[in-house]
Write a sequence for this structure.
């Protein structure tokens, strides 16, 4: 980005746009959407004089943990020029107008993704069912709120840690929306799984294989659910699809480790604490992916990514 927008000023611009969209509009509360909207701003105000330079600006992003959404943005906006038949002989000013229009269109798609997912989830959230959720997912929260608003009587079990993280996040927001929620220590997932009808989780990234990278503990929840014949559904926006093929847990990006609490107990001197924030759940442990592109079996993700790269 430094070559076309001027280094520090360019970085300050995208950070400012990202922070603004995190607080307002369609990006509020969703960092991935906020990142996409920031990139729309980059495309609109770019001084680049070629498509390659504009693509480089969009790819030169400071938010590596949001790379799935950012890469999908570039794939949709730039790569689809070939699919939609952009005239290669047109002046760049005309090409840029079409690219910016396509960027805005992609931003609108991302902004409406959670609403589409929430609607599709209603076919699975049946009246009277017990749902186990793990981690905090805006897509899952919207789906449960919509079910509650439509009069469905749900019981939601929210996993939590001994430091009370589950109570402060999903369970508290559900209770505020009038949906009965119960905090379940993540160590007790197997104990409570017999009373669960389905598991519904979100995802940070959906890999090319149809597996998901999500809140640490998702993998063990899925293992228990599969062992006890309970379906695991993933509510995930399509802009989280990524060309990743992790072979194991150590292949995924962790980012900054979260602080780990033990109910006020101090960790003994000389003892290390595992602070992983994400894990990888292979596709064979997942029933279906509920996305803004429709309800997909996990293997279909590869086909979607292939179509977008044509």
């Amino acid at each position: 980005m430094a070559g076309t927008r001027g280094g520090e000023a360019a970085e300050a611009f995208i950070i400012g746009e990202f922070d603004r969209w995190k607080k307002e509009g369609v990006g509020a509360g969703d960092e991935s959407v906020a990142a996409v909207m920031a990139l729309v701003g980059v495309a609109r105000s770019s001084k680049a004089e070629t498509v390659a330079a504009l693509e480089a600006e969009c790819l030169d992003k400071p938010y590596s943990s949001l790379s799935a959404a950012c890469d999908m943005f570039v794939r949709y906006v730039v790569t689809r020029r070939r699919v939609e038949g952009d005239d290669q002989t047109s002046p760049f000013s005309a090409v840029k107008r079409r690219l910016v229009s396509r960027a805005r269109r992609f931003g609108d798609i991302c902004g409406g993704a959670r609403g589409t997912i929430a609607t599709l989830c209603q076919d699975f959230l049946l009246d009277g069912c017990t749902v186990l959720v793990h981690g905090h997912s805006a897509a899952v929260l919207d789906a449960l709120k919509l079910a509650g608003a439509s009069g469905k009587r749900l019981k939601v079990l929210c996993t939590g840690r001994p430091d009370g993280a589950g109570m402060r996040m999903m369970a508290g927001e559900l209770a505020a929306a009038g949906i009965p929620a119960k905090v379940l220590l993540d160590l007790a997932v197997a104990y409570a799984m017999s009373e669960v009808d389905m598991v519904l989780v979100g995802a940070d990234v959906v890999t090319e294989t149809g597996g998901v990278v999500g809140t640490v503990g998702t993998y063990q929840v899925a293992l228990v659910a599969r062992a006890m014949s309970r379906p695991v559904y993933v509510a995930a926006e399509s802009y989280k699809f990524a060309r990743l093929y992790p072979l194991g847990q150590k292949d995924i990006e962790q980012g900054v480790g979260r602080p780990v609490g033990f109910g006020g107990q101090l960790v003994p001197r000389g003892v290390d604490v595992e602070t992983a924030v994400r894990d990888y759940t292979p596709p064979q442990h997942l029933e279906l992916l509920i996305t803004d592109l429709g309800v997909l079996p996990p293997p279909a993700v590869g086909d979607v990514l292939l179509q977008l790269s044509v």
Remarks:
- Residues 121 and 143 are 6 Å apart (CA to CA).
